[in-house]
Amino acid sequence: MKKYNFGYLFVMITVIFFSTYEVVSKTIMGRVNPFQINFLRFFIGGSLLFLFLLIKRDLKIDKRSMGIVALAGILNVVFSMNLLQLSLSTASAKASIVAVIFSSNPIFVSIFAAIMDKERIPLFKVVGMFLGMLGIVAISTDGQAFQDINILSPLLALMSAVLYGLYTVVGRRASSKIGSLKMNGYSFLIGSLVLLPILLIRDIPVFKFDYTASLQVIYLSVFVTGIAYLTYFMGLTRTGAGSGSMVFFLKPVLASVFAIVFLNEKITLNLVLGTVLTLLGMAVMLYWERIKQKFV
């Protein structure tokens, strides 16, 4: 039981850091190119983790694991995160709609885990997942009219969520064998180095940006990327990819709270309703077995 408790604690640390991403990113809009921040995040975060591997003298990795790690890095850094950025930069894109679609990635994690790792999806998790989705829809679509949604932006966000789900399962498989530190260190560096030629082809500066955004870039690289991804896979190896990723449903709730505190956004009825639904969904997914044993 303690193994699973620590697993969810690690994933919760990840979600807290991930939930600050939009708020911090909003403060550097116009000062750092979206593709550039992806490269910097994963290159700096990966270099930091690689430094720890050097200190531990634990750089050895077999060819098969390296192949899986490289696949994970390309899926996440090159495809998923850039598709997410493209979704946000599309004309008439609604950040809230993009956020709710990307936050559905635990659904695809569960699907890929069921296919690749033979993880069973019990009914109570399906119910909890549904409640969580209702919650993030309520939070993220506040005041949005359906006819205002640009179909290209949601489609790109959906592709990003699907690939992030696949990346999570692939990465968890490598992490369980070689450890989270090594998996993330190598995958981040490989992904960022594969992304580098894309920046050069598109004439996007690699390291040159408005240096008044340096603190935010360091935070996004070290905490939101380096530490958060490390704790993410430390959690998933203890809880299972499907179960651990369910905590991702808390991200829209926490992101909204951070936006209220730091960006002075208003509390709405949708936020309150969505928070209740999301927490209820989390309670069902995480504690249903205990509840059933106690009352049934």
Automatic annotation (TrEMBL):
- How does it sit in the bilayer? Multi-pass membrane protein
Q: Which InterPro entries match?
A: AA-Vitamin_Transporters, EamA_dom, EmrE-like
Instruction: Please provide the record's keywords in A-Z order.
Output: Cell membrane, Membrane, Transmembrane, Transmembrane helix
Annotated Gene Ontology cellular component terms? plasma membrane
Q: Residues in domain EamA?
A: 6-140, 155-286
Q: Which family does it belong to?
A: Belongs to the EamA transporter family.
Q: Could you tell me what this protein is called?
A: DMT family transporter
Species of origin: Acetivibrio mesophilus
Question: Which taxonomic lineage does the organism of this UniProt entry have?
Answer: Bacteria, Bacillati, Bacillota, Clostridia, Eubacteriales
